[in-house]
Amino acid sequence: MAEDLEKLKQRLPLLEYLQQQHWSARSTSHGTEFVGLCPLHAETRPSFYVNARKNLFYCHGCGQGGDLIRFLELSRHLSFRQSLAYLAQQKAPALQAEVLEKAAAFYHQQLPHYPEALRYLQQRGVHDAALLHELQVGYAPGGNLRRHLTTAGYPLELLQHLGLVNLRGRDAFYRRVVNLYGRSLGSVFPHRFLPGSKGDLVAWESVRQFSQVILVEGLFDLAALWQAGFRNATCALGTHLTPAQFRQLSGPPGRRVYLAFDQGDHQAGQHAAQALAHRLQQQGLPVAIVDLPTGQDPNSYFVGGARAADFSLRLQGARPL
Ligand SMILES: [Zn+2]
């Protein structure tokens, strides 16, 4: 706990916090020291000193001094615990995104070192290294992410809160191929997400320019289509679109949407495709459902030997609603 506290304080330097609170100061003749009016008591001549290197303050007027936690206790009338919670909250959204990106980058770096991961990608027909990088596909061998991130200064509590580390303190992802969204792409738990990390449609910045868009279920479906040259494909990592993703897809009127969902035996994919197609059509979008051979999804279709021309025919023959 004491160690995590140090890291939390390091992540938000006292001076940076004070500047966020519009404390104005000038540096003294010692380069790392700053002086300004005391935020803790009324005064007209500056007597509040901050040592930026040590992350400590001292006021010669009221005699108060200490670290950022002490400053929060005094200025916001919080208990020690409340100050900690306040501090953690201050940095929360940016820090969470930063940690997820660090985790994704770390997993991506692991990928080439694990033959089982490369074999799995080969089975799924993904061979384009640039594409793996673009989709931030990585491998979680298990047992090294926690060390990597805590060494870099991220508190264990945050890693647990994000679902990267479980409550027993172990890496949550173990021997699995994952991507930026923390989604497991392996066959063991195919539908697991990190809480709260589902964002835009995948690669929406590059796909939004197209007047015709192909929506698929899975990241490997997307990879297969991109490799075959269909760069207008995107994916919501599942059949359910969040309201924000739905708005993205239905943004400009007239965009044609092809739904190429899993044609598995369970039919869940087809029902989801029908429901989504109706909703899109209500927004005035021309929608068509792509038929694939029974039991196939776009990924298995290409892995099974289909070519770009075959899929083009499937697009042409897609059923309008
Ligand atoms: Zn003071």
Describe this structure in words.
This protein folds into three domains: 2-90, DNA Primase, Chain A (Alpha-Beta Complex); 92-178, DNA primase DNAg catalytic core, N-terminal domain; 204-320, Dna Topoisomerase Vi A Subunit, Chain: A, domain 2 (3-Layer(aba) Sandwich), CATH 3.40.1360.10. It has a five-stranded antiparallel beta sheet, covered by helices on one side. The longest helix has 19 residues, at 92-110. Mean pLDDT is 85; it is low at 187-197. Helix 3 (68-76) crosses helix 4. The chain is α/β, with parallel strands linked by helices and 321 residues long. A hairpin with a 5-residue loop joins strand 1 (25-27) and strand 2. It contains 15 helices and twelve strands. The protein has helices at 2-11, 14-20, 68-76, 80-90, 92-110, 115-123, 129-134, 145-151, 156-161, 204-207, 219-227, 243-249, 268-282, 298-303, 308-316, and strands at 25-27, 33-36, 48-51, 56-59, 65-66, 138-140, 176-178, 212-216, 233-235, 256-260, 287-289, 319-320. The relative contact order is 0.08. The protein is elongated and about 80 Å long. Residues 38, 40-41, 48, 59, 61-62, 64 line the site of zinc ion. Zinc ion binds at residues 38, 40-41, 48, 59, 61-62, 64.
